[in-house]
Amino acid sequence: MFTPSPEGPARLSAVCRVHALQTDPGPVGVTAIDKRPVTGPVKVGTLGLRGDVQADRSHHGGEDKALYAYADEEAATWAQELGREVPPGLFGENLRTRGIATTGALIGERWRIGATVEVEVTSPRTPCATFARRLGEEHWVRRFSDAGLVGTYLRVLRPGSIQAEDEITVLSRPDHTVTVGRWFTERSPEDARVLGEAHDAGVLQLAQRVLDAINHPRR
Q1: CB atoms within 10 A of CB 177
Q2: Within-domain flag for 3
Q3: If you average pLDDT over residues 63-70, what whole number do you get?
Q4: Where residue 123 falls among pLDDT bands split at 50, 70, 90?
Q5: Angle between helices 189-200 and 208-215 (to 10 degrees)
Q6: Does this model's pTM top 0.90?
Q7: SS3 for 36?
Q8: 3-state secondary structure of 78
Q9: How many domains does the chain have?
Q10: How far apart are CA 79 and CA 16, in angstroms?
């Protein structure tokens, strides 16, 4: 898992939103996974980037998953593994970052992006069949899951505008050790207890899918 370097500030490498809806054999019939970088400032609200959409809103989007962030450093790992470039937006991410952990971020961690936008780390990305079709790589869902480099969803706490090369500042980190990646790959009953207590105390606001996993643990 990527550990950010202390050298230099963390930044946005790219801001990506849907380029065009694509036909897809899944139940919805179309997908908005084709995200590509845009130039200039983009407004951010509680449901994500202005001009972005989600085709399947039962599984994507909403306040808990307003933005999806993935790190340059983790994309570079995949580029080496796949023998192909992994440009910003290929994984369907809205934000491509550098110098800050996404999979390694603590659940409940808060960032400021640019001058005004503030976000909260909520939960890992779960790969799906649409993502597999997008990549065209054999056994992609399992490979992506097994690698554990899943990136993070973000909740928007303070709207504003962002653009490529904006600085990312960590505003706060909760007093626990449960990262996005750990919750995805090796969550434990103790992790669930710690997160649940932090949520109940108002220290952080857990995503509904995390609360559901706490209340209905895997057997």
Answers
A1: 9
A2: no
A3: 96
A4: very high
A5: 130
A6: yes
A7: strand
A8: helix
A9: 1
A10: 19
| Residue 49 domain flag | yes
In this prediction, residue 161 carries a pLDDT of 98
Biggest distance spanned by C-alpha atoms of the chain: 47
Torsion of the alpha carbons at 74, 76, 77 and 78, rounded to the nearest 10: 100
Residue 9, H or E segment: none
Task: Copy the structure tokens of residue 82.
Answer: 């796949």
pLDDT tens track for 33-52: 899 999 999 999 999 999 98
Structure-block tokens of residue 155: 């909740």
| Gap between the Cα atoms of 75 and 78, Å rounded | 5
Tokens at 114, concatenated = 């640019």
Terminal-to-terminal C-alpha distance of the chain:
26
Kindly state whether residue 66 falls inside one of the protein's structural domains.
yes
Domain that holds residue 68: 10-215
Tokens of 123: 């939960």
Q: Which domain CATH number covers 127? A: 2.40.33.20
* CB atoms near residue 58 (< 10 Å): 9
